[in-house]
Amino acid sequence: MDIQTKINELREELNQHNYNYYILDNPVISDFEFDQKLKELQELEKNHPEFYDLNSPTLRVGGTITKNFPTIVHEYRMYSLDNSYSIEDLQDWEKRIEKTLDEKVEFVCELKYDGASISILYENGQIKQAVTRGDGFQGDEITSNVKTIQSVPLKLKGNYPEKFYIRGEIILPFKEFNRINSERSEQGLELYANPRNTASGSLKQQDSGEVAKRKLDCYLYTIVGNHLPFESQWDMLQSAKSFGFKIPNTAKLCSSLEEVLAFIEHWDTERKNLAFEIDGIVVKVNSFSQQQELGFTAKSPRWAMAYKFKAEKAETELLSISYQVGRTGAITPVANLKPVNLAGTIVKRASLHNEDIINKLDVRIGDMVYVEKGGEIIPKIVEVNFDVRQPDSIKIEFIQNCPECGTELIRKEGEAQHFCPNEDECKPQIIGRLEHYVSRKALDMASIGGETAVLLYDNGLVKDVADFYDLKKEQILPLDRMAEKSAQNIIDAIEESKKIPFEKVLYGIGIRHVGETVAKKLAKRFHSIENLQNASLEELENVEDIGGKIAISIQEFFTKEKNQILIERLKNSGVQMEVGESEKPLSNLLEGKTFLFTGSLTEFTREEAQKLVEQNGGKNISAVSKNLNYLIAGEKAGSKLKKAEAIGTVQILTEMEFLKMVNS
Ligand code: AMP
Ligand code: ZN
After folding, report:
1. What is the CA(265)–ligand 1 centre distance, in A?
2. Using a 6 Å CB cutoff, which residues line ligand 1?
3. Model confidence over 175-234: pLDDT tens digits?
4. What is the CA radius of gyration of the chain?
5. What stretch(es) of the chain map to CATH 1.10.287.610?
6. Rounded to an integer, what is the distance from CA 185 to the centroid of its chain?
7. CATH code of the domain occupying 83-304
């Protein structure tokens, strides 16, 4: 037999043994035999580099070093899930769905794995790329690290689609988490807080050999792509299993909400016996055509709902309270706690949010308090154990002056938060604005972190975000811990930031109440900073999801002269102050009209169609009602078409008729 055939045979054989062991949980050879074969293959590959294969099983042991993980834009956005915390929430959700669909619905229930989500691209049956969720729009490419996870197939079996992304969760089983921590304790290293963070931390290690040593596991639950042959979530799960993926067999097809509730009840107790952590159950509408009808909100699918199990509580002592000053001057009281273990995490701090919360809890220094981990990362104090309160304890007086600059704090009518009004000189506010501007979701200057921002500020080089663009390398070089390379990186990052799209710049300049989503909507509606500056309160409030509070805050920002100067300076430096050509409006042909697409479309994808509507001044809405002007019905249009016909005032168009409307 020639060398190449031998190598190929060994690879096939090892892939099959891997599958038997990690997916089927049914090994047919001993670990020793497996290692012998692996060594044989490694030896052959070493002597015959001409037969290198990107997806050889020998790569499982790792060895590649990645210095920087490249950012990859997800071809299909990775959405979040809506959360529910009670049976009533779920029942409401079911009612909403039934109302929209007007037909019987089946559900698939799955465990909600608590790990790091991942999207893995397969092309022609081979693993191509693995990307973290990131912000849902883009993530980090960590392919060589993911390849070390034994249950992720490198090559597929069966009748798989040519190209698709499979998504799932990478988790660290409790046993492995404890093993790692006991090793760290022996070495005198700080212990890891919980399996989820350890899993995502492990995936970001530069040496894939180190990743391979941690026995990460991966559970997969969805496939996305173009023209996929699946009709339902259940069908997709079974197919994915046949391609060789590790698909949890805990998933269940339910024909009624009663069955869903029984599933939840079962796992609420049974989860304590699982080898890994779950934080709830995910309920999904089974049929893909029904999923299509239901669509998405800005953040999550309407056809899925997470049910979160009740959080565990822990009791501990409140040692002291510190006050943090945020970028906008908002003061947040933080409770310092006696460290306590809460559902596998060591908790030392808890947010107290504001003065009202402190008063409502009636919490005092020295109290024993109950802490709970909700949806947020920082746990919160939910209750005081009054039975053991010390008789000499005193009520907490909220601070009156800024802990950083001493300025007297203000609290506006109707707002819960205290503010330090000294925005020009209060250091954490200045630094906070700089940090916000360079952060990943804003101008994304990876080489300027918090420390560098402080350094630049302390040396009088940067006081506001426009100052970045006046920086010269010679000014940075003499600073502490700076070298030729790091100084150049800073200059490069600043230069690169001039390409960052307007919506992110808008988020980056830090107008109060203008978060990522609002910035996106503003950019979409107004297209340039001038238009936004000139927008009336009414025009602002007419944008979806923008209420009076946000609108006023935007106007306040632009009326301040120093902000006008700042914007002017940024513009002159070449920062993007308007949307790109492709985002600009094409016409106002559809102004004031609402549109909805249903059924399967052949001329364009739903996203393309919706974009056309927006580019021509129209508005997409998600349900059939009297407010709908046009329903564009593709093939197999179902309940929405019927409903629209029943209303009578909705105009029903074919795809071609719609195209004519925008091309006239
Ligand atoms: P959250 O982060 O609370 O918005 O929950 C959404 C995340 O849950 C998703 O991004 C997934 O990473 C994760 N997840 C865990 N298990 C599942 C599952 N079975 N189906 C869908 N998402 C899941
Ligand atoms: Zn201050």
Report:
1. 19
2. 80-81, 110, 112-113, 117, 133, 169, 221, 282, 306
3. 898 888 878 776 666 667 778 889 999 998 888 888 998 999 999 999 999 989 999 999
4. 28
5. 3-61
6. 32
7. 3.30.470.30
